[in-house]
Amino acid sequence: xxxxxxxxxxxxxxxxxxxxxxxxxxxxxxxxxxxxxxxxxxxxxxxxxxxxxxxxxxxxxxxxxxxxxxxxxxxxxxxxxxxxxxxxxxxxxxxxxxxxxxxxxxxxxxxxxxxxxxxxxxxxxxxxxxxxxxxxxxxxxxxxxxxxxxxxxxxxxxxxxxxxxxxxxxxxxxxxxxxxxxxxxxxxxxxxxxxxxxxxxxxxxxxxxxxxxxxxxxxxxxxxxxxxxxxxxxxxxxxxxxxxxxxxxxxxxxxxxxxxxxxxxxxxxxxxxxxxxxxxxxxxxxxxxxxxxxxxxxxxxxxxxxxxxxxxxxxxxxxxxxxxxxxx
Length: 328
Ligand SMILES: Nc1ncnc2c1ncn2[C@@H]1O[C@H](COP(=O)(O)OP(=O)(O)OP(=O)(O)O)[C@@H](O)[C@H]1O
Ligand SMILES: [Mg+2]
Known about the structure:
Elements: E1 7-17, E2 24-35, E3 40-44, H1 51-58, E4 66-71, E5 74-75, H2 81-89, E6 91-94, H3 108-118, H4 124-137, H5 154-166, E7 172-176, H6 184-201, E8 204-209, H7 212-216, E9 221-226, E10 229-235, H8 236-241, H9 246-253, H10 260-265, E11 304-308, E12 311-314
Helix pairs in contact: 3-4, 3-5, 4-5
Adenosine-5'-triphosphate binds at residues 16, 18, 25, 27, 45, 47-53, 210, 278.
């Protein structure tokens, strides 16, 4: 899928050595993801499944154990020096917590100005103009330049963080739970901002979230991750409309319906037990120890079953089971 993409992550593994026990933690364990130019892609899964590890590896904060990260046709892992720095500039990371990612001693204007200096803009006047443009692009008034982050709401701070990332003129934003620390009421506004940035500047985004509901509105395609592996990949309409992996069905069944009548009729899929340790993941399908429909065959690796155009599920029974029929 999307082989001509902006970023192609191929069979990426990032394993850690547990400091205390020395065990190998297979946090990200063979993941293939592509992001097209100007495409918004969701990456969803429960806590600990390796989402941040994948995001951090893409931007160079973690060293991969193996695999490829092809950005605009070049493997980042084989680039060095200036060429690597230039590619890294084009891939910016947005952190979950806008509270800790802004300095308390800088005004907003200074924070963005600093990012522009780092990116080589030497002319102070040009930087001032660019700062105003960047603030406008993220929906903040110019006057906010003289304010400090402590005087701002979480949503405004996240907008500033996005403006600062945009100062580098990136091609893609890797956003690690960009709204999870924010008030529920303003989450949709920040998600809308990503849509606007895509429409207005062709910005591609990888939106990482726990919850399938969070990325539904913005993502064109969604990757569902579990215990270091991908369970299902789909164009949004297909993934939300006809989820084919039992894990995706379980995640979707956990989302409350806004319509009270449908909410009463909603069937929830309860998963057995806890997520196993990424040190000793189950053989075959990683999800099988919690899957309500698992059979003996699930101890062998699941096939990547093609469910439709841009829709793949890694399950022996993909499309044959429906744990929670959708009401609509
Ligand atoms: N530096 C590290 N050393 C050892 N183990 C790590 C390290 N970083 C992450 N892990 C482990 O790797 C696994 C995946 O962690 P990761 O933070 O990528 O998950 P996540 O999907 O982002 O979770 P969350 O939703 O809670 O943010 C977890 O078991 C975690 O404990
Ligand atoms: Mg995380």
